[in-house]
Design a protein that fits this description.
With 683 residues, this protein is mainly beta. The protein contains eleven helices and 37 strands. The protein has five domains: 172 residues, OB fold (Dihydrolipoamide Acetyltransferase, E2P), CATH 2.40.50; 114 residues, Nucleic acid-binding proteins (OB fold (Dihydrolipoamide Acetyltransferase, E2P)), CATH 2.40.50.140; 120 residues, Bacterial OB-fold (OB fold (Dihydrolipoamide Acetyltransferase, E2P), Beta Barrel), CATH 2.40.50; 106 residues, Beta Barrel (OB fold (Dihydrolipoamide Acetyltransferase, E2P)), CATH 2.40.50.140; 107 residues, Beta Barrel (OB fold (Dihydrolipoamide Acetyltransferase, E2P)). The longest helix is centred in the N-terminal third of the chain and has 13 residues. The chain is globular, with a radius of gyration of 27 Å.
Amino acid sequence: MRKIAYSLIAMAMAAFTFTSCEDVPAPYGQPEDPGSGGGGGTVVVDPTGSGTEADPYNVAAAIAATAALPQIADAKEADASNSIDAVAIGYISSIDEIDTDGTYGNATYYISDDKEGKANKLEIYRGYGLNGQRFNDSGATIIKEGDLVVVSGKLVNFRGTLEFTQGSKILSINGEGGGEQPSGETIGTKDDPIKASEALTKINALADGEKSTSKAYVKGKIVKVTTSQENFEKYGNINYWISDDGTEANQVQVYAGDGLNGEKFKSVNDIAAGDEVVVFGTLYKYVNKNSGAVTPEIEGSYLVSLVKGQGGGGDTPSGDGDGTEANPYSVSAAIAKADQAGVFVKAYIVGWIEGQVYNTGAHFNGSSTVATNILIAESANETDPAKCMPVQLPSGAVRSGVNLVDNPDNYKKEILLYGDITKYFGTAGLKNTKYAKIGTTEVGTKPEGGDTPTPSGGEGADGSKIVSIADFNAASESDNVWYQLTGTVKNLKDGDQYGNFDLEDASGSVYVYGVLSEKGGAKKKFQDLVSKYGIKNGTKITIVGTRGSFQGKIEVMNAYFIRVESDGGQGGGSSTGADGSTVISVANFNAAAESNDVWYQLTGTIKNLKDGDQYGNFDLEDNTGSVYVYGVLSEKGGAKKKFQDLVSKYGIKNGSVITIVGNRGSFQGKIEVMNAYFIKVTN
């Protein structure tokens, strides 16, 4: 039926009657197509469609809907208030780039209501191919100008550019594709799917980076959901893990999966640990190009069936985060921790508690009569106390700035909190709340330097266990169990070749008996790390090692280096750059934590810049390393696709030494300089 529907749409599109812009003004305030000169002018098309798969927007309607949205400055800001999940149909009028041999496998192109592109155009930014397939996949269908495509994704107004933001997918090309029933042979069937453990065996038999030639039906129980609310709002799909029994044994990741029968999920909470699912997708032995780590995946998938469960068999909660400021706990993850000091939690304010009894005293509104507490949840519309967490508001700035008695407008707003997870109102709550951030407003005392204890739980480098120093000290001695610790370097002696020092976080301190540059690396090479990363007393560092002791003193033994988190604000080659940014080497930038709030100034040589690149995508290299720069604006917050203006003005080319400012980010495991803008060229 879907193929027939798309064919009818294509016929309807071909039957459009166009009118010259000489007679009718261009709609929605959009500029004329600059490529239409001399070809009869801009074509005007009336908006049609409702934006659903059954009745997709035409481009004019998609532009009209998107033009009414408030502008956003970062794709991560996209949510229900400033974006639309929609389906649109149009002809591909031009293509900026298709990544057929790179890391990402996406494309940036434009669609229009006419083949010649004389009608208004809509940008498809970093979109994927047919049914979400990456364009660098073997056998992927490559789009071309003139193709009639049906696109599904999230519409946003990005700094005045109306676009499907990154992560969209094509449902059909020229009326083909997108059918509910797969064609050809499959691994397993809808009625007789293979088990998750069988899928894992088949994936392990593939070569690194190889995908199954046939798609598979896979049955399993969800172990954990790893997509954050922020990323769900951005992409509309969900990453989760499944196994035969809901434990972490023999689990497989479902990467960027869609909902039942290929429809978009409505919420990240549509699935949860313990749910039984049948998934249809491609088996993939994914290899991270930076770390070499292998992940067994099912990609390009959707749910065939979903039976809600009562919670998974593993210890990992549905939800996300590790309790740091950069990656705060969700409410479900915080509830699962039950008792942990000094962590960040991000959620929505959904109500308050009256009296002493949690379940009967919970009120889900902003008309509070109690200033000493609030209720938070992962969804702004949550009304189930079991899915909420009570938050204590101690007297002072936090209470004054957060409580709903004095701040009723805080109701349903997103909030970042710092405090202790412990019993409150007889359930898991947040007490001793010291800091809160709502929007751009901060109240209370933020932990100095963000140096909170590393929360225990989760998997670190090379399969290690992430623990706080207190939990490490409490663990049993073993040469076989590896722990990842993050803390501040203390008592490091100048010139120390081994890397002996005390490591300290808010939960305690431990002696580190030597640090290698990599697992199994050579001894007495610590000064190489000092030279490369500026490690010194006060540096916040992450290492992996085993729990040992010497003469009764607990030690981290067999330790090796992972990354520098921050330099502790004590110099070490860092200084203040443009707009208050931190001047940093490429190596230290790569070792920094991801953040859209921390700005770094980097200087290096341009490599692999393509002729005519409008965005400014290239590798930046200095004597410490290399990093990929994902676009450069002419100024902070400037317009996209203006890099050639900089090229013309400054003669920028491969080999130029350039200074830029940007944030530390990543895409599909590859580190990137994101939101970058130009400072200067030195030669």
